[in-house]
Design brief:
With 444 residues, the chain is α/β, with parallel strands linked by helices. It is built from 22 helices and 13 strands.
Length: 444
């Protein structure tokens, strides 16, 4: 049955791997924070001019594409944009929420037909690809970038770097950390979160029927990254130029063999292949000990359900307690006729006011401005401290223009191992050879 179910969703997994890493829809409003944020905004008008965010151009409308969740969009449209347009009455923002499915094709179509956006909040994995296409405006020499650069976390900033230039700003960052079932913790007599995967696996014999320890939401390089990387698996060398000898190296093969073994033994549950229970309901119903979830998880359900789980760091494997780095970047398109106005809005989205608003009321997005992330207001947001700590062990998805093709190859390899259609050593060697070719093409 596992083989049939997993095979049936294979095509969907390959096509939608890029969906992971972005916040999910939510109806939480964050309105309780509106008053304090407005007070903060009222005191920042002078600060904006002091920071050099000025606009002396003609009246302009900036078309801004984004993939915000419900909660994030509400903060954007009800707090951030009104505040921006109050400060900059000559600039109007046309915010357009885009569906993620098929979005890259829509971007390419917009570029070719000159109907795309001026500014966009996009998944970090797309920046190198679009920069290579010549679709994005470099921001290195834009006024204010040098000063802003020094305020940002280095890791998220690097996701905008391609071929010697920066092509955007890191609007927010995120990762997967542990979401633990309180019921299962109590059942197993756990007062603290297990610190290693060895400690987790040792609990297997204490489970009841139809209970599992790990909820991993699919054999793709977003969902599996925390597990695969923590167990010692890697995709490429440190320069992201070669997969052979790394993806098919001894440590990666051992990591994949361990994952297959744990899946066969029921340590990893059926949501790995799209089966039931899914990760969220399995946590709520006491069927999974823990799952890999992003900060948006806690803004996506009602308080009664969220009260059944608790956030905590992921266990460590042989390589440590690692996770995957996600997030979104702000980019200006080359074809924009209002680049100056778009840059002003981009800088405003990086301001203390906007970064704080999104962090405390917009789906718990992790700020990329260091001072904001370290502020008491943001740290007091539920579970934010956990994600800031987990990010210390975040591994980037390979920053290359061919990441999505590479991701497809990895998904095929991981799936074939779980289906026992191929052995890890053979599947990873084949994938490494194919990824080598992709990486070589990326440099041309």
């Amino acid at each position: 049955m596992k083989k049939k179910v997993l095979a049936s969703i294979m095509a969907t997994l390959v096509a939608t791997t890029a969906l992971f890493g972005c916040g999910s829809s939510s109806t939480d409003s964050g309105k309780s924070e509106t008053s304090s944020l407005q007070e903060k905004a009222d005191g920042e008008d002078q600060k904006a001019s002091e920071e050099g965010i000025a606009y002396n151009g003609e009246e302009a409308t900036v078309t801004y594409w984004h993939t915000h969740s419900d909660a994030e969009e509400e903060v954007l449209t009800e707090q951030i944009i009104p505040e921006f347009e109050k400060r900059y009455p000559k600039i109007h923002i046309d915010a357009v929420r885009m569906p993620y499915d098929g979005l890259m094709q829509q971007i390419i179509t917009g570029i070719s037909g000159n109907t795309g956006p001026d500014l966009m909040r996009m998944d970090i994995i797309w920046v190198p690809e679009l920069a290579k296409m010549g679709a994005l405006e470099p921001v290195d020499d834009l006024e204010g970038f040098a000063e802003l650069k020094d305020k940002l976390f280095e890791g998220p900033l690097k996701t905008n770097y391609y071929n010697g230039k920066y092509y955007g700003l890191p609007l927010n960052t995120n990762c997967l950390s542990g979401t633990w079932s309180k019921a299962v913790m109590e059942q197993l007599g756990l007062k603290d979160f297990p610190k290693t995967y060895d400690e987790v696996v040792a609990l297997k014999d204490k489970l009841n029927k139809d209970q599992y320890l790990i909820a991993c939401e699919g054999p793709n390089p977003w969902s599996m990254a925390p597990l695969f990387n923590s167990l010692g698996g890697v995709y490429t060398n440190e320069d992201y130029t070669k997969a052979s000898g790394y993806l098919d190296g001894e440590a990666s093969i051992k990591a994949m063999e361990t994952i297959v073994k744990w899946y066969d033994e029921g340590i990893i549950g059926p949501c790995m292949n799209g089966g039931k229970p899914d990760a969220a309901n399995g946590l709520y119903d006491g069927q999974y000990l823990f799952s890999y979830q992003g900060p948006w998880f806690y803004a996506n359900d009602d308080e009664e359900q969220i009260a059944k789980v608790e956030g905590g760091l992921l266990p460590a494997g042989s390589a440590g307690s690692l996770t995957v780095n996600g997030g979104e970047d702000l980019v200006i398109f080359n074809g924009s006729k209002v680049k100056d106005a778009a840059w002003v809005f981009a800088q405003f989205l990086m301001s203390d006011y906007a970064q704080t608003a999104q962090a405390v009321g917009g789906g718990h997005l992790v700020p990329t401005v260091k001072s904001v992330a370290e502020s008491e207001e943001v740290k007091n947001t539920p579970y934010m401290d956990i994600y800031l700590k987990q990010l210390e062990g975040a591994v980037p998805r390979t920053p290359t223009p061919v990441w999505e093709k590479m991701s497809d190859k990895l998904t095929v390899a991981f799936t074939s191992c779980l289906l026992h259609e191929d052995e890890p050593a053979s599947a990873l060697k084949k994938a490494a050879t194919e990824i080598d070719a992709l990486l070589q093409d990326a440099d041309k």
